[in-house]
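Input record (one chain):
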Amino acid sequence: MTFQQRISALSKWGSALQVLMETIYDNYENPLFNAVVQAQNKNAWFAKSNSINALKEICNLLETNNLNKLVEANIELKSEVVNPKTIGIVMAGNIPAVGFHDLLCVLLSGHKAKVRLSSDDAVLIPDLTNILLEMYPEFQNQLEFVNQLSGMDAVIATGSNNTARYFDYYFGKYPSLIRKNRNSIAVLSGQETEAELNQLGHDIFDYFGLGCRNVSKLYVPEGYSFNPFFEAIESYSNLMEHNKYMNNYDYHRALFLLDGIPFLTNNFLIVRENEAYATPVSVLHYEFYSSLEDLEKKLEGDKELIQCRVGLNGLPCGSAQQPDILDYADGVDTMKWLLSL
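The corresponding structure, as predicted from the sequence alone:
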């Protein structure tokens, strides 16, 4: 396929998915609804509402204006790849269809994607691509799902810090993008409105907080009162209906009580003072700051650990899980890397 054929096909794929999204709720003849149900059956963390939100974001990525934005930032895309490479993609499974952006970049670039799915997220992306292949069988030459990677020319692999060491060893002889753990933060001024704090709840709770773009730590000014924050996020109390989430909450609440660790809670979120960025499900860390200037220096030093920032001098509250098509994981331009191979 030529570049123009690929970008046209991907845009029309997005339009077809958008039409299906309009009737996804409780429509058993809708292939996306069936995919969402199967994904939840295989992985209880993939609640239907979360998978549907992920699909909405995918439809947004495939809109013509967003695809054009990607092309404008990488004008060399318009030149056909002379020697297409096979790109192995090791996908994570922490949130629904989290590896889609990597797949999109490979397909648009003209390279071939050889994908190893996470067992935790083995339904949504194959079902999405089935729709693409029904519309454009030509992409069959560019896409393959495998149980074990071999015969590739380069690798994109996403995982934890522990698996990254394995990836470095196993894929060391290939050009590679190896992604490790990152977390997201919010910096509050103490002057946020109730609506802003409520929107911050999306950054914390969407996908049960399992994504690298989910806020896991707050920086708040000295003397900050958490009462307005807890009042503003009360609308997320339906998390108490999710067994796996509340099992985590009950476990860590009991653990902190036994260890004498002080914390605040509203019966579905534990907020504790801690310097670490990473937190378990249902736990949010916070740290006081006295000088915004000093805080900025600290965050600059830790930028390799931070995926995104919301609040003061950052993204608007509520937008962390709505990345732009040019918001690359770990800040590394995947498309430019692909085009350099």
